[in-house]
Amino acid sequence: MKKILIVAATAGLMSLAACNGGTTNTAAENVAADAAANAAAYEAAADNTTNAAAEAVLENAADVEENKADAAEANAH
Question: Which pTM was predicted?
Fold first, then answer.
């Protein structure tokens, strides 16, 4: 019984080791993608507004999100 348990545990650990980090995106890559999407949304909102002050605020927010995306992408690798 003890040998069967050891063999089963070893097989389970070997199958986990074979995955070798099966995820394709890291957390930093996901953050970068989210920030880039936010930047695009802010830019679209800036393009659609008729108020110059609101457009400036939205463009600044888009720039901040682009900087976040760049920083996250730099940390992903």
Answer: 0.65
